[in-house]
Write the structure tokens for this entry.
Amino acid sequence: MLNSNLGNVLNQIVNFARTAIFEQGELNQLTNWAFDIAVNNVHEMEYSEINVTFPVGFNPDKTTINNTRTYNKEQLLLKYQFLAFNQLALNSLMQLVTIVEAMLSDIVRVVVARYPQKLGAKRNISIQSILEATSLEEVHLRATDALLNDLSYKSPTELAESMKQLLSLNLLECPAFHSYVEIKATRDIFVHNRGIANDVYMRKAGSHARVKPHMSLPVNTHYFLESYEHCIQVTEWLEEQLHEHWHSSEYEHRKTPQPELPLTIPKITETVIKNHESLSTPPDVQSATPRLESP
């Protein structure tokens, strides 16, 4: 890692994250499609009720504790509607935030590992960590882990300020990042406050806040698709900015137009055709060629 091209490593991190975001969007749509199939099957059921058995726990011997519940068509349709339009969007949104958080953390880790001086002289590390380390490189890694742990508790805006100091990269100049700030605030409020906006959400989301305090934050398919697009735009902005700071030959190769192969088939000249017809098969080949004769 230390001997590889830093620009290419950073570009790979961003590309990996973008691919993960694409896959999350694909999985979301495939799951929606599966729900559509399930709903159609419910509509086509000849019977009005169905028994569904599912595990609700484990016994000490690790066998499942099962529960059977009877649903009518209306109950099943309401469950699928909630899963498709609310729960699926929320779960997918949480995955988007996780992907972007991991990408930003990996970027900081790789750059600081290459330039340990970016940790700064005031970075504290416990005596125990130093004594347990077997090399100076391991001390750097432990100090980097401590830095990343500190950054994980910061808001996206605070993280952007820290990354500006560490990487000379100002995420606040990326328009899509401001939307991501609200996306993460939404994720956090569902984790910590059941999706009800509070003062913490209002402070984090700022001008991008979607509701007033004490109101429920809507997370549906439309909001997920908007968030999906904003996260993609963040990766695209990062890809360009990182390339400007640390040149990536892989990024440059992808962005350089490749010569197109000719699509037209060249005409075969009359001379070539005549020369081909004048060629005779050698005797040994002729004798080895099987003949098909009628019995």
